[in-house]
Amino acid sequence: MTEPIISVRGLRKAFILHNQGGVVLRVLNGIDLDVAAGECLVLHGPSGAGKSTLLRTLYANYLPQAGEIRIRHDGGWVDMVTAPPHRVLDVRRRTLGWVSQFLRVVPRVAAIDVVAEPLRTLGVAPDAARDRAAGLLARLRIPERLWSLAPSTFSGGEQQRVNLAHSFVHPYPVLLLDEPTASLDAANRETVIGLIDEARARGAAVVGIFHDAEVRRRVGTRVLEMREPAGGEVAA
Amino acid sequence: MTAETNRPLLRAEGVSKFYGRHVGCRDVSFELHPGEVLGIVGESGSGKTTLLNCLSAQLEPTAGHVLYDTRADGLTDVYRMSEAARRLLMRSDWGLVRQNPRDGLRMGVSAGANVGERLMAVGARHYGNIRSEATDWLSRVEIDADRVDDPPATFSGGMQQRVQLARNLVTRPRLVFMDEPTGGLDVSVQARLLDLLRGLVNDLGLSAVVVTHDLAVTRLLAHRLMVMKGGAVVETGLTDQVLDDPQHPYSQLLVSSILQP
Ligand SMILES: Nc1ncnc2c1ncn2[C@@H]1O[C@H](COP(=O)(O)OP(=O)(O)OP(=O)(O)O)[C@@H](O)[C@H]1O
Ligand SMILES: [Mg+2]
């Protein structure tokens, strides 16, 4: 395999619920994985197996107890677990794209500006950023009359597409996708498959969770099987 | 915001403030980099404002140091510099947005004069330039040109808070301290102010330390979060990490007791 863009070793993640009797949930118990340019690693397993937990930990949204998460950034490696916050934020800004299951935005900001924001934080001029945002909104079939409205009143599927546009507007070298095609109709699902294929073709490394077996088969290049972790325990 | 530097703009080293035997804040250390927004959250009385006052050179800590990357001399202890240097810093490089706009504005003089005053304090003398720059900044915070000559006493709370922002930003500070900037405002005004602040952070590369009890505000505005309890920092991390995967029992309680931060 060519040199990976993401390299994970010995990753452990447990949740300690202090206010619920100190229950400990050991969700990730020593994960190793490598993903190279052009690959799409599919996380697969039953509900509760820890797929989203793994994805969130890769994004440094969840804090692991042990292990390293190395991401290629600026021609070097950054360990997301130990890097200082401003470095992690820089990796997120320029290298690491993320599609979450829910859209979280500033109230009253227009959909087109929500989508343009990742480019604006990278210093792209307002007009150019909006042009690229418009292109993606059109491709994801968001009617033009909605572009200037705040997405908080959009339907679930429309919000998900704004969310996708927001995450594909910059050509991130790494993409983390948590059920990007959930709540989409067939045509939009095809569009998302196309966006993922294009990302891989330009050399992005993708890690994704896809409930739809057909999507999994079409975009995945490898599968990481995850099993449900053992039941919770109470800390001593 | 895209520029990455390894030099912090502000550094707190073991900052503690005791009021007699009572703890205001205890042993707080962190670094703030250019373009970063740090949120400070915690229950009322947990030491947030005490810490903010120590950081912004208004309240000398009992122990510890506050260092700022001055344009002339690099990292300098703000309580060791001369009174004149400190005052210049507070007038030019720093902004201070107070919880109550009444404490940060002169309510009886016009909005335009409130903003122009800050420019004059850093040496601007040309009346026409001062006035046009003040008007320009007031329009950036969405105060109409026809209200520039009215005193803030005649404005709503949200408008007063925006005048306070304009007054602080007109000197193009590098660092702004804010104490509950959206407190006491209704939700739609809050949203507008938040959007404005985010834009300014983005476009001007501003850094900020923001005290708030509103976790939803920190989610949208702050890159990093510090959770305080009883004067001490119990947890610190990226904002979304602290809100989605809080580690300390107190942070878990704080996050779980609100709806969808
Ligand atoms: N922030 C959190 N705090 C506490 N426990 C959590 C947190 N996030 C996830 N968990 C727990 O970790 C386990 C794995 O959850 P996760 O969401 O990763 O599963 P999943 O494989 O993505 O499931 P699904 O297919 O249903 O989305 C669950 O027991 C869940 O309750
Ligand atoms: Mg999941």
Describe this structure in words.
The complex is a heterodimer of chains A (236) and B (261). With 236 residues, chain A is α/β, with parallel strands linked by helices. Chain A is 33% helix and 28% strand. A five-stranded antiparallel sheet of chain A has the order 5-4-1-2-10, with helices on one face. The radius of gyration of chain A is 18 Å and the shape is globular. The model of chain A has no long low-confidence stretch (mean pLDDT 92). With 261 residues, chain B is α/β, with parallel strands linked by helices. Chain B has a domain at 107-172. Helix content of chain B is 38%, strand content 25%. Chain B has helices at 48-55, 83-92, 101-104, 111-121, 127-140, 157-169, 187-204, 215-221, 239-244, 249-256, and strands spanning 10-19, 22-32, 37-42, 63-70, 74-77, 94-97, 175-179, 207-211, 224-229, 232-238. In chain B, strands 6-7-8-3-9-10 form a six-stranded mixed sheet, with helices on both faces. The two termini of chain B are 24 Å apart. Bound molecules: adenosine-5'-triphosphate and magnesium ion. Magnesium ion is lined by residues 51-52, 209 of chain A. Residues 51-52, 209 of chain A line the site of magnesium ion.
Q: What is the helical fraction of chain A, as a range of percent? A: 25-40%
Query: Low-confidence spans of chain B: pLDDT under 50, at least 5 residues?
Result: none
Rg of chain B over CA atoms, rounded to whole Å, is: 18 Å
How would you sum up the global shape of chain B?
A: globular
What is the distance, rounded to the nearest whole angstrom, between the alpha carbons of the first and last residues of chain B? Answer: 24 Å
Widest sheet: strand ordering of chain B: 6-7-8-3-9-10
The proportion of strand residues of chain A reads: 25-35%
Question: What is the number of helices of chain B?
Answer: 10
